[in-house]
Structures are given as C-alpha cells and as structure tokens.
Amino acid sequence: MKAIEVDALTFTYKDATTKALDRLKFEQEQGEMVVLMGHTGAGKSTFSRCLNRLIPHFHKGDYSGQIRILENSITGKRVHDLVDQIGLVFQDFESQLFSTNVELEVAFGPENLCLPREEIRERIDEALEMVRLKGFERREPASLSGGEKQRLAIASILAIRPKIVIMDEPTTDLDPQGKLEIFLVAKLLKSEGYTILFIEHEAEAVREADKIVIMDAGKIVTEGKPYDILKDSQLLENHGIRPPQIAKLLEEINEPMLSLTMEETLKVFKKRDWKISDEKYTALLEKDEQHQIGYGKKIIEVKDLEYIYPGNIKALDSVSMEIREGEFLAIIGQNGSGKTTLVKHFNGLLKPSRGEVKIADEDTKGKQVWELGKIVGYVFQNPDHQIFADTVEEEVAFGPRNFGISRENLSLFVENALKEVGLEGYERCDPFSLTKGERQRVAIASTLAARPHVLILDEPTTGLDYREQKSIMELLENLNRKGHTIIIITHSLWVVAEYAKRVLVLHRGKILLDDQTRKVFSQEEKLARSFLVLPEIMRLSNRMGRTLLSLDEFKYCLKR
Amino acid sequence: MFIYLDKQSLLHRLHPVTKIVGLILLFIWSMMFNHPLCLSIIFVMVLSLSILAKSLSNLEKFSILLIILALFSTLLWSFFLRGPTRLFKLGFIQISKESLLYGIAMGIRIDTMIVSGIIFLSTTRTEDFTQGLSSLGLPFPVSFALSLSFRLVPTFQATTSTIVQAQKSRGLDLESGRLLKRIRKHIPLFVPILIHAIRNTDLLAMALESKGFGFRKRRTYYLQFRSTWQDWLSIAILAGLIGFSFYLRLSGYGVIFHRI
What we know:
Chain A is globular and about 70 Å long. In chain A, the strands form five sheets. Chain A has a six-stranded mixed beta sheet with strand order 6-7-8-3-9-10, with helices on both faces. Chain A has 22 helices and 22 strands. Chain A is of the alpha/beta class. The mean pLDDT of chain A is about 90. In chain A, helix 4 crosses helix 5, helix 10 crosses helix 21 (about 535-545) and helix 15 packs across helix 16 (about 435-450). By secondary structure, chain B is mainly alpha-helical. Chain B has two domains: about 1-125 and about 230-260, no CATH class; about 140-225, no CATH class. Helices cover about 70% and strands about 5% of the residues of chain B. The two termini of chain B are about 35 Å apart. The relative contact order of chain B is 0.15. The chains are: A alpha/beta, B mainly alpha. At the A-B interface, helix 3, helix 4 and helix 14 of A face helix 8 and helix 10 of B.
C-alpha cells in the first residue's frame, strides 16, 4: 500500500515571489524509510509541513496539488484530523518541549485524543521503550542532553501512534553522540514497521534507507537506492551534500566500488596493493612542524583556570593552555564539556573563579568586555541572537562604532569587512531577508569590522549545508593566512580535520588532549572515551597505521 | 531557574484547586491588616507552611530579593506617609512612628505574598495548575496558555542572557551614558529578543498543533486528582482564620492607618 502519494504539489509562501514547491511529485510505500536530502532552501521542510497540513493551515500562501495519505486524499482536512496518521518531529527540540517531566511530555498527545488514563500509561511505556528513555519518567526535560531531548520529542509523537513519522533534520543541533542515538532510533522504528521520512544532511548516516530522494528548487531531482546515490559524488556536491569520503576516494583513484564500508575498502586496498607512501607521509609531518614555527608571540594565556557556575557546578577544572598569534585552534568535546565556558573567558564575558587568564599579557580581571573586544572578537553560534539593524551596513558598523573607531575610518572598515566575507554589494540589504549562511557572514563581518586580532567562532557551520559550510571555513582559513588567530568550537570533526592546525579536547571541564590535529586524531581510543567518533576516512587511515586528515592527503599519499 | 520541586509533601498532594483557592485566600488574608505585628503572625504561618511544603531551598534562592523588597517598601512608605508622631525630620524628608510601622507592615505584606507564590510554584507542576484552572471552569486552551507562560520564563531568561552576551562581545556598553542614550542602547537587545520570542512561539504552536492540541473540545488527563478530607480541612482552617481576622479587623485591631 502507498503511504504517501503526492502529485503536482505547488506552494508559494505569502509575500514570497518564488515557489517553495513546484509541481512536486513523490511516492512512498508503507514501511519504507526514505531519506530526503538537498541544500538549504530546496523546500524540504515546506514539503514535510504540507504532509500534515501545517501548510496551508498554519503557513498561509498559494497552495495547489494533490496529497494522498494511506490512500485517502487529505484535501480539506485539518492538522488534528491527521495526527494519528502522520507525526512530525522538528529540528528545534528546545521549543517543542514544554512539560514538567518526561512522562507528562509524552502524555500530552494521547490526552488530546481523549484516551483513558490506563491507555495513556501504556502508550507512555511503549514510546519511551522505543526511544530508549525508560527510567527517565520523572526527569525534567531541561536536565536531559540534546540527544535525549530529541528522543523525547520523538517519543511524544510516537505515543499518538501515527503510521508515518516525519523527522525534519532532527540531528542538526546535536553532538556526534546525540546524532548516533537518533540514527539508532530511526533504524529501530523502521524495523518496527513504521513508515519513515527522514530529512537529513549527513550522507554517511543514511545507508539503511530504502531510498534516497534529492530535492532542489521545490522539485524532486532524482531518487534511488542509497548505494547508487551515495557513490555519485558530483550529484551530491551539486546539492549541498558532503559525499561519503571513502566512496569519493575510491572513485578518484579509479577503483571499482563494491561497497561503501571501511572493512570492504581495506580488503580492496590489500588485494590491489594500495599503500600509504612513507616518504609522502613524512612530507606531511614536516609541513605540520613548519606550520608551528610560523606562529607569533603568546596572545592568550590560561593558568590553572577553574570556573564554577552558581549552584556549585564546576564547569572548568585546572585548565592551562596558551595560544600564539596565527594559530588555528579547534576546541571539541561533548555538550557540557566546558567549551563555551572556556572561550567566554577569552573576551572577559566570564572571569575565572580561580586561576588566571591573560590576553596580550594583561590579566582579564578588572577588564571590561568592550575593552577586550578590541583584541578578541567573538561570533556567537546563532546569528539571530545579534542581528538587529535595518541594513547590513548598519549592522556591521555597530561593532567598530562601539569600539570607538573614528567616523572617517568607519566606512572603510565596514567596506573591508564585507569584502572579506564576500558580501560586497549587500550594504543596503535587510539582514533579515538573507539566508542563514549569509546571516552567519554578516555576523562574522560585524565582528571582523572592529579588526580584532583573535576571532572566536562558536559552531560556525551548524545548520548550514555542505556548500555553505565549506565557504565559511574557507573564509576563516583565508583570515588565518592573513594573520588572524582563529579559534572555533565545533562538533563537526571533518571541519576540524581539514581546517584546524591544533585541537583541544575538553572532557568534563578538563583538558583531555591538546596537540597538533594529526597527533590528536591518531588517538582514536582516547577520543572515543569522550564519545568523539572520527570520520570514516580518518579511521580508515588509522587502520592503515597513519593519520590522514582529508581526502586530498589520502590521494596524495596513496601509492601501489 | 524553574522552581517546581519534585518532592512528597502534604502540599504536593493537595488538589490543585485547593492550592489555587488557598493562594487567593492567603493573598486576601495579608491584605486585611496593615499592622506589622498581625502581618508578622501571618508571615510566620506562611513560613511554616513552606517547611511543610519542603520548599525552603527555593526561599533561600529568593532570599536576597525578599530582603531588598522588604527594605525598599519600608523606606518608601515611611517617606511618603505622614503620621502624628514625628520621629525624624531633615528638610522635606520626615518620618513618623506610624509611617515607619506602616512601611514595615507593607514590607512584610509583599514578602508574605511572594513567599505564598513561591510555595505554590514549588509544589504545583504547570500541568497541575492547568488542570486546576480547567476544573475551575476556564477553557483548556486558556488554562494551558496561562500556566505555560510560567514554564517559559526560564527559557526566555536563558535566551536573553545569550543575546546580552553576544552584543556585549560586539562592544555594547550598557552601563555608561545618560538615561535617554542608555535606553537607545537597548535596541540591539530588544530586536533579537523580540524576533526570537516570535519565532519560538511559532514553533511551539506548530508542535502543539502537530500533537493534536485542540483536537476536541474535551480532553483527558494523565494526572488524576481526587479531593480528600485534607483538601476540605485545609480550606476550612484557612477560611476560619480569615473569618476570625475579619472580626478582629472590624473590631479595630491590626490597623495603623484607618483610611488606607
């Protein structure tokens, strides 16, 4: 039986000029797991919201086309008519949860369906079992980790017992561990016979799907078995998806691909006698060393730093480190490991409970944020937490004006910053009308315009598609080359491997590892203790006895 | 921080309607007198209620706020009211015995009300509150929205503090400058906060609708409350105390200023 049939679905948001969906045609069998991919703005969320009638009921606009759910047309139905057929899980789990404890959160749906208490009890048990949150019934949702929160959001949908579950980028805001948990839940749901439509950015995680569908400009561009889609690197890159790196590697060295797994690839390498050249690997190591020689003087110095939040929660414990001018440092670790707390000490937002932090040889004690901000610029994770002005130009000028840049220099500084981030010509634009990737650039420009020496970025790539992620990181690489010291906090380990020269791993407020990227990533077991799983291509190289940080390095070193 | 405490106590067990009615009665009670002695007695009783409710830890959290409010209100009322027995005069500032006592009374009154509120929130989940309001006859969406607004305060606070930090990192200095300039300086905070609030409300509304909120006029509740003799007794005791107090008040006790 067909679970979803869509024909000629077209939708234009009120006040928008372009169609968000354009004569979209789609079909999904019952019990299938379909993964929907495509770059930001392709219309994936819009499509998912049409399926449960949030569109056209909640978001208004021009709507036409036919949707049949479980072989019944949904034209004229309301959102609540469909709750027991379609469940929709959103990306932003924080704003989906509103109850006092886990079990009441799950009870909310069944209560609305007027079910008797006994039945609600049963459904809570069943749903929590499915997402593996049994034993969490009385916990307050705010006390859960990101992955647990998103699983709770899924459970609260499952308790309504919909036949079809749609998940709209449920893993975007999660750390690697949290992502893994969600993928496991999706797999389990599939084995239980649910029909699943999964919107996701990460190609490596969706191999269990029955079908991958790629969307662009409101249409379905292509669909196929995971293997056929994932091996087509060109196709994936064109649609803002990072191709599985092993597949791309095999393609580039002209090896016939039989499978995409690491084990299979190791076998292929062995059989066909592919090895990592010692000579070339040594050259890579030399390059690492050379990089270090180029660093300037100490710019940030942290000694025995301890930070305690109100309520006696120790967030940092005896952290000592220093950062030199010209470094590109990545700080990684699970949520709650103290990453953000640490960098907030670098521009004076937080002051040490014990120990000291020196910026350019001066203690941060007694210094104001606006003084330190001239040396250390800090770009927060979500650009929407800072954008307020009517035009991009005004927004970018805000920082330098606060820091007392003279009127004559102001427009020059703004102009340069916009050029740096590739937004020249956007001066008069309304920042709110830009895409997330562009808003991220505006945020970077607004910090950059004050010309701080050090640039801190908290999760600069979250919520962006592959193309946007790459261009933001290339921008940072460029700034680093021009002499800026760059510090990023991130969960995305491929970003770290390809761009950062040094990695600091935090685990429960302490430094677990602090070294050159290659040296840190060679210690897979130690990283695993902090739930950090390396990208496949790096694990492959580690299995071969060497640590290669990117596809390019791999290609460079392989010989036979 | 969200202040509900997941504990077992008499007040946790009471029917939400009892607690809502009780809260209102406590408010009325503290409005009856304006003599510090009478109000102190009420305040002590409310304090002992908080021990019974095992919510002293929350009172500790708010203790600074309580002290500041009490002092502030004492000072303010002492300056503004004029009584017959003058204690102190400096230029146009003067304090009388009556105004001082009245001020202290007002300080105790406001603290009594806040402490009652804290006890209520420490022992009542938002879901209990929703159900209590519904069984008092409010439509479910209204009671849900009312209690939800309490629930969202901490989330909202967290975002606000992030936004303040983000703008401070861009050199925003909220502490210096004249009043008008300082108010203007808050625009970079208001805009992102407002936009965040709108976006969040939107998302929440979608999530609620996707879970069948407003599916039918009626709905069931997972939590079930039955009123017991404890509920009746609690209300009876409170009503009795208030009745007695009313009698005292009519007989002219517990008042500093008769007009107010």
